[in-house]
Amino acid sequence: MDTIIAIKGLEKTYASGHKALKGIDLDIRRGEIFALLGPNGAGKTTLIGAVCGLVRPTGGTIIADGHDISKDFRAARAKIGLVPQELATDMFVTVWNTVAFSRGLFGLGPNKAYLEKILKDLSLWDKKDAKIATLSGGMKRRVLIAKALSHEPKILFLDEPTAGVDVELRRDMWQMVRRLREQGVTIILTTHYIEEAEDMADRIGVINKGEIILVEDKTALMRKLGRTEVVIGLKEPTSAAPTISGHTPLISEDGLTLTYVIDGDENDEAPADLIKRLAQSGMDFTSINMNRSSLEDIFVTLVQ
């Protein structure tokens, strides 16, 4: 899969001396959904701002779909749509005029059929003549997405797109994101709802203190850094339990529960093999539960 965004040695130091980005190297693949995760203040929004031309880097290069952001800004920016965190738009303009004007800013002529499709996909068509000020917070968020898509970008940044929106909108939004990916649009999202990243993303990047500390395919990341806890309920208490395939269990205070921890990089048959060997050892158990670590568990471990 070829690269649509290539970031090399990107740095940003503010006038205060704060170094927000420290030599970022990052390639985004064409047509993927890439989740950029990090705690508050990690540099996510600064990085997105630099790619979208809203923040002037102090070093490094950014190539967006073959165009250098600093040398060919207009061509590069025309490839990019941005849904920002803030609900910033003219409150006294209608939905239709807001979206149509945003398309015109990129030098594109009218295309009523395309704009109608966007508004219908976002459940905004019946609000097309309403002024932004009259809309709910969730509807305003949809308008931001429509604006970002108005000029038919190949790259779409979603910066905390579901912050403060209801469950229905969140579901509709992710359905739309999947459709866009199917149409070849590259999606880069940041979110504090890490379960969304786990569900949606093809690859995960983690940024902390201005540095990219990990970029990995989601499935490989879950396998490599995740772990499985096998919790065994015993019929009779025990003070000793067998070590199986190098795994020594934790024993509860009452002696009725054993917890074996299996690292994610072990083979997929390891939990089943452990249970089989435990049964062969003569242990009499009444229950088995397996808890697999989530992406959020892995994320917390990484940033700590």
Automatic annotation (TrEMBL):
Keywords: ATP-binding, Nucleotide-binding, Transport. The keyword Transport applies. Residues 5-234 form the ABC transporter domain. InterPro entries: AAA+_ATPase, ABC_transporter-like_ATP-bd, ABC_transporter-like_CS, ABC_transporter_ATP-binding, P-loop_NTPase. GO terms for molecular function: ATP binding; ATP hydrolysis activity. PANTHER family: ABC TRANSPORTER ATP-BINDING PROTEIN. This is ABC transporter ATP-binding protein. It comes from Asticcacaulis endophyticus.
